């Protein structure tokens, strides 16, 4: 332990050097802007800016890229909250409650919550990273295909078990998402599936961001157009010290979900191949399941903003763990960071901690500083972001449409995806009109491919024997929790009914 | 000095971009100016204010000034544009990787991108994109559909040869692709977890696999990828049957061996080397002609009396019908990268063979030979042995 503290102090000193500190501040600001642009997530940001880092020493370079990664995690929340378009795939869950809050005139509250939750998530995970990197890395190794699949089942359970929603409609929504997730090339045999005859655009599958931007960006706009006929929409938001003070007092309302989301996010992030998007969705699902007031989720519950934001920042730190200790990226962004490390002449792997301690600890130290920097930069920018909402609808709507189209085009750069995005917009609008929850479909399309791969790998390994999920301890625990989560709302309902019966009986 | 030259060159390029951007800025300002004329000048029949005129004049001259500065910068430093042929890329180059992140092909693509950037060999950025779906089928199909495009290139594995044979459905013929250059030849080594004390050599390995029956799990990067072919070759040679489990990318395969989720792998040296150095995994046999310098104590299959050799080319290819000028430019680019000290060092560290440069038509001929070889291989072991059906 003493050794860790010494290393950490060294790392912090390293991160506080003028060059590194500048890198952190510039990186966070750039990341913030990159994350806020729909379709331009941390992946693209890091990829585009990677070459710049060849001009500085490796430690400064990784600090710069990690700061961008960090900043982008928060930046995604900005467009999710103010415009209702997920800025990055990791910020989709933030739209669920962030958008309704903004529409009700509480954008500043939501943005503050996102900033604070991101800070808490980042800090908790970096502390975990500092203290428990080696044991967690070996725990992550225990995760083979059956454990991964059990974790996915757990993730689905958090969404099925949502108390307030109509369960058959939730199941329907998940199934639609799963069908869409299976479009593309079969992961085991490589044969094309469900490509509607021979439409090339479907070969790479349906990009999850295309679906999310369509449903939340376009669908939401159509819905607003219908309900308001474009007349209202000017939100009166004034920022004052009084209000900010009030926003900070708000923290105690969501600190519990934030801490839970942080721990979960960090853990999911450390597992190779999972990453921040599933983490944020799972965190949202858990926050809703364990909330005292699950019905208010999706309608503007502040915890619904804090939970995913805490989780995605925690996961971004977490995904550095497999990158550094195993040389396996935990997310697409760390895959690019990994490439950078190889170019700088560093070999990620189990020996990096002992062979290049100044690099690893410099990175860890910079994560602490980057957290502070992002929080301060974010809070300073909130009044500016809130101003976006005071624009009249006739200006805001076309801007949102353009950003949606750009966001749909950017990930794969094919027009096919733009058409698909517009189609999903219309479908999303119809689903909303028919009162179907769309969040489970979004979850399914993210987790579907991961679940399918791990399921088939497990069954190949066990020769079709399903008991493999129950005989291995970690996966058995995950499955048991999943079953409990599915039963939890039913039990709650039963209890409520019994209480109501008791109430009428005595009265 | 190279770095300094690169910096100055970047500057010149920046100036060029600025002058380009000025076109649009001037346009916008002129629009604003005419708007002003229509709404104010015309209404009040006033001559536009002198300030406006001055501003517009300066802005329109700014372009010339910027061009002049750029020219001065370039001539002062005596620098030339890095273009090696008549053609040079006009927009970012997509470098398609037909495998997942973290694997050998991915590492190579990102290293090449970084080196090209560092040495300032390309006026436009190179952007690596992973398209790992269906053992590279997704990437091949993507490239085929990009026929005639000069800004998309592909870094290959041997699934470049095998995937179109095994998956006839995708309708790709790689002999139409434009060969650019072969960067390296990669090797294969058989790996097991170091906790397997019972396995010390090839014989004890075969005995262990036979004892396990078909519950022996071999991890690989996908049906039709080179490791699945090598696995099928071994099944045929040694007369055992294993369960092949595909993972996205060689890095994940390596991790699953360390975590004991699979029993053995045939990873490339680069993918396992760090785990080997950390004592997590151990090499059993090499499928090369000579022992690799990295593993002097590990025998080759040939030494043990089983002549089983298998290599994987790492080459760069363009889509069908790429223009000749573009092909020449890319050959120049990748030749420069191939000759770089960093690349050669990477090859040595990672157990790749990088002694022979093959480009253009020579690479095309090599591809033809390899396609024929792989067709034979697939026929002899049977496509079903590879796909595991």
Compact description:
The complex is a heterodimer of chains A (507) and B (389). Chain A is mainly alpha-helical. Helix content of chain A is 75%, strand content 1%.
Can you tell me the overall shape of chain A? globular
Strand content of chain B: 5-15%
Succession of helices and strands of chain A: HHHHHHHHEEHHHHHHHHHHHHHH
Return the domain count of chain A: 1
Determine the CATH topology of the largest domain in chain B.
D-Maltodextrin-Binding Protein, domain 2
Largest sheet of chain A: 2 strands, antiparallel
Biggest sheet of chain B, strands in spatial order? Answer: 2-1-3-10-4-11
The greatest interface between two protein chains, and residues involved on each side, is: A-B, 49 and 62 residues
Going by helix content, strand content and strand pairing, the class of chain A is: mainly alpha
Strand-pairing-aware structural class of chain B: alpha/beta
> pLDDT average of chain A, as an integer?
83
The count of helical stretches of chain A stands at 22
Can you tell me about this structure?
The complex is a heterodimer of chains A (507) and B (389). With 507 residues, chain A is mostly helical. Helix content of chain A is 75%, strand content 1%. Chain A has one domain. Chain A contains 22 helices and 2 strands. In chain A, α1 (2-15) packs across α17, α4 (58-82) packs across α5 and α9 (208-228) runs antiparallel to α18 (393-409). In chain A, 57% of the residues are buried. Chain B is an alpha/beta fold. In chain B, the strands form 2 sheets. A 6-stranded mixed beta sheet of chain B has the order 2-1-3-10-4-11, sandwiched between helices. Chain B has a 5-stranded mixed beta sheet with strand order 7-6-8-5-9, sandwiched between helices. Chain B has helices spanning 2-44, 50-76, 104-118, 137-145, 159-166, 202-212, 226-238, 250-258, 269-277, 324-339, 341-349, 360-381, 383-387; strands at 93-97, 126-130, 152-155, 178-186, 189-193, 217-220, 243-246, 264-265, 281-286, 312-318, 358-359.
């Amino acid at each position: 332990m003493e050794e860790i503290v010494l290393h950490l102090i060294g790392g912090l000193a390293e991160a506080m050097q003028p060059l590194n500190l500048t890198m952190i501040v510039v990186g966070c600001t750039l990341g913030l802007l990159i994350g806020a642009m729909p379709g331009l997530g941390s992946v693209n940001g890091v990829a585009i800016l990677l070459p710049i880092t060849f001009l500085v020493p490796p430690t400064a370079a990784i600090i710069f890229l990690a700061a961008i990664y960090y900043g982008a995690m928060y930046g995604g929340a900005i467009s999710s909250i103010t415009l209702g378009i997920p800025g990055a795939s990791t910020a989709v869950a933030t739209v669920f409650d962030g958008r309704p809050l903004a529409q009700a005139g509480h954008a500043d509250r939501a943005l503050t919550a996102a900033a604070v939750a991101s800070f808490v998530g980042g800090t908790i995970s970096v502390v975990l990273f500092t203290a428990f990197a080696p044991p967690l890395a070996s725990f992550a190794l225990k995760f083979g295909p059956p454990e991964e699949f059990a974790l996915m089942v757990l993730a689905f359970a958090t969404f099925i078990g949502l108390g307030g929603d109509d369960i058959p409609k939730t199941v329907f929504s998940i199934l639609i998402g799963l069908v869409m997730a299976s479009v593309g090339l079969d992961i085991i045999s490589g044969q094309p599936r469900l490509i509607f005859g021979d439409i090339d655009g479907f070969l790479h599958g349906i990009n999850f961001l295309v679906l999310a931007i369509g449903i939340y960006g376009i669908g939401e706009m159509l819905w607003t157009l219908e309900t308001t006929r474009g007349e209202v929409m000017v939100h009166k938001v004034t920022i004052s010290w009084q209000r900010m003070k009030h926003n900070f007092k708000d923290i105690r309302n969501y600190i519990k979900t934030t801490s839970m989301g942080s721990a979960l996010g960090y853990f999911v992030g450390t597992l190779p191949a999972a990453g921040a998007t599933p983490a944020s969705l799972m965190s949202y699902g858990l926050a809703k399941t364990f909330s005292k007031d699950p019905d208010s989720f999706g309608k503007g519950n502040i915890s619904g903003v804090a939970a995913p934001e805490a989780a995605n920042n925690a996961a971004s730190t977490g995904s550095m763990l497999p990158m550094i200790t195993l040389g396996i990226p935990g997310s697409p962004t760390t895959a690019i960071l990994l490439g950078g490390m190889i170019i700088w002449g560093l070999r990620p792997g189990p020996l990096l901690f002992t062979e290049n301690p100044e690099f690893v600890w410099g990175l860890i130290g910079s994560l602490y500083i980057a957290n502070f920097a992002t929080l301060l930069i974010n809070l300073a920018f909130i009044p500016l972001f809130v101003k976006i909402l005071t624009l009249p609808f006739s200006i805001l709507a076309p801007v949102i449409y353009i950003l949606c189209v750009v966001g749909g085009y950017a990930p794969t750069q094919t027009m096919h995806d733009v058409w698909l995005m517009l189609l999903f917009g219309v479908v999303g609008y119809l689903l909303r009109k028919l009162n179907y929850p769309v969040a489970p479909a979004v979850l399914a399309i993210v987790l579907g491919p991961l679940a399918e791969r791990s399921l088939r790998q497990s069954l190949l390994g066990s020769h079709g024997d399903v008991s493999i999920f129950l005989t291995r301890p970690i996966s058995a625990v995950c499955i048991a929790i999943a079953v409990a989560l599915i039963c939890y709302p039913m039990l709650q309902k039963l209890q409520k009914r019994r209480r109501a019966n008791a109430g009428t009986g005595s009265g | 000095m190279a770095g300094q030259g690169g910096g100055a060159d970047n500057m010149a390029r920046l100036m060029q971009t600025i002058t380009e951007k000025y076109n649009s800025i001037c346009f916008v300002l002129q629009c604003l100016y005419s708007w002003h004329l229509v709404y104010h000048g015309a209404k009040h029949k006033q001559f536009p204010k002198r300030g406006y005129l001055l501003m517009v004049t300066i802005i329109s001259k700014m372009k010339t000034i910027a061009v002049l500065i750029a020219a001065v910068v370039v001539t002062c430093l005596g620098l030339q544009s890095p273009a090696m042929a008549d053609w040079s890329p006009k927009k970012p180059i997509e470098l398609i990787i037909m495998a997942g992140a973290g694997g050998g092909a991915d590492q190579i693509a990102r290293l090449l991108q970084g080196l090209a950037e560092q040495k300032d060999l390309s006026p436009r950025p190179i952007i690596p994109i992973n398209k790992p779906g269906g053992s590279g089928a997704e990437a091949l199909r993507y490239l085929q559909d990009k026929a005639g495009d000069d800004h998309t290139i592909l870094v290959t594995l041997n699934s470049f040869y095998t995937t179109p044979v095994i998956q006839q459905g995708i309708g790709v013929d790689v002999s139409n692709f434009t060969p650019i250059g072969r960067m390296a030849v990669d090797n294969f080594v058989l790996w097991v977890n170091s906790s397997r004390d019972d396995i010390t050599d090839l014989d004890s390995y075969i005995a262990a696999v036979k004892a396990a029956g078909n519950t022996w799990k071999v991890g690989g990067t996908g049906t039709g990828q080179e490791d699945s072919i090598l696995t099928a070759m071994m099944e045929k040679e040694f007369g055992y049957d294993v369960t092949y489990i595909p993972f996205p990318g060689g890095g994940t395969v390596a991790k699953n061996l360390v975590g004991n989720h699979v029993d053995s792998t045939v990873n490339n040296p680069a993918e396992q080397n760090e785990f080997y150095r950390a004592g997590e995994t151990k090499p059993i046999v090499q499928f090369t002609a000579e022992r690799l310098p990295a593993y002097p104590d590990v025998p080759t299959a040939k030494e043990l009396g089983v002549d089983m050799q298998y290599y994987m080319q790492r080459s760069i290819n363009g889509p069908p019908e790429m223009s000749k000028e573009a092909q020449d430019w890319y050959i120049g680019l990748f030749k420069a990268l191939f000759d770089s000290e960093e690349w050669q060092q990477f090859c040595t560290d990672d157990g790749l063979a990088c002694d022979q440069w093959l480009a253009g038509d020579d690479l095309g001929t090599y591809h033809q030979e390899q396609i024929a070889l792989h067709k034979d291989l697939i026929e002899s072991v049977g496509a079903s042995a590879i796909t595991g059906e």
